[in-house]
Amino acid sequence: MKVYDGSEGQESTPERIKVGIAEYDVSTNGATLSTSGLGSCIGVALHDEESSVSGLVHVMLPAAEEVDGGNPAKFADTGVETLVEELEAHGADRSTMEAKIAGGSDMLDFSKNGSGIGLRNANVVEETLSALDIPIVGEDVGGDHGRSIKLEGDTGDLIVTSANRESKRL
């Protein structure tokens, strides 16, 4: 994880930071955070307008095992919690954070019984954000298509590009 704070000498155009699967990143100076390959995975974008701190995590699975000891960004519960802590460490205030989420498709769930990994990921993300008192102010979840997202760190806007339709701004 790296934090973009503007000290890299890019004053005119904010940096674009790619966040991989089971990774997260934080921007304190307007960088655009992006991730792709959101099928059943969920991209969780957090933004605190008052402090201009933003973050993005790309989670793969619903919940970490109690004795996992691995990468917290891999899981919806620990990934969201870790991202919130990182934003707070960089000056954000949980009481003014807002969340936007995308992904959670059931692209490979042929049973169509609603128990797929995408739905479970979305449910755990929503439960974790609710427990942390962070409102979800925009979402594009479910369905059977992949997505890519870009979080504009200066505005908190989330641009969602879906495999089956045009981009939309949350």
Automatic annotation (TrEMBL):
It catalyses: L-glutaminyl-[protein] + H2O = L-glutamyl-[protein] + NH4(+). Keywords: Chemotaxis, Hydrolase, Receptor. It is an enzyme of class 3 (hydrolase). Probably deamidates glutamine residues to glutamate on methyl-accepting chemotaxis receptors (MCPs), playing an important role in chemotaxis. HAMAP family: CheD. Belongs to the CheD family. This is Probable chemoreceptor glutamine deamidase CheD. It comes from Halorhabdus tiamatea SARL4B.
